[in-house]
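EI: anyone free to look at a 254-residue chain?
SC: sure, send it
EI:
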Amino acid sequence: MFGAALNTVEDWRNRGEYYLRNAEGERQITCLRLAAKCFDKAGEPKRRDYALASLEFAEIDEQDPAKLRGKNGMELKQKLYEITEQLLEARDVGFLNKAALCLLKTGEQEEYTAQLFELYARLCYTQRISDGQGNVLPLAPSRHEKKYFSYAAKLFSKCSQEDGAEARGVKLDLALSSFRNFVCAGIYDAAAELIDSGALPIHDNSSFQALYQICIASSHTLMDPTATFRKDFKQRALEVQGIITAVKKAASRI
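SC: here you go
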């Protein structure tokens, strides 16, 4: 089950981290179980408990959505909040996406969930660059990072369309966050649609400049996940023509 013999605490800890990193997709539940066992062998009770909390959520996530309704649904929602809190206590990027997915399952706190997804994707991106995985800048986000930027973008967009966003005066900020995450995810058509549809409200020079600052190249953004998009925007690449056209239209309406 564990391959080569594990003889030291460090061996068990490293194997636990390996399974934790690979707890995705169809292998998620199996990997989380193995991670918990390894951390237990390594004498890491907190890491074991965080892995078990992730496992508990993964098992809940596989249940029939109908179980989230009624009294059972309320109890399950409370459990999801407890798991989220436990995973956030870990203060570890390896559990951050799992905490966000758990909170997403409650159907509440969507703006905060979007922030967690973006933070997770950014931390993964920054860690990958600092580890030297790719020495040509700007470096595009990985497929894994793009997935979570996409989650964040869609949630920010949804929150920006809620009546409460207009009342709180945060519609523009939420829409800009959605745009930023869409371009980080490489979903340029959706980013352009935000502008064209008016979901990203550009009514004056101030709001236009807030949008434009996300698009223009800067030496401060070479290691930012938007860097590849900014490079394409500057070079008027074919992939971003829809966004360029939308930005020009927005500018003409001011």
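EI: Residues 138-254 form one domain.
SC: 👍
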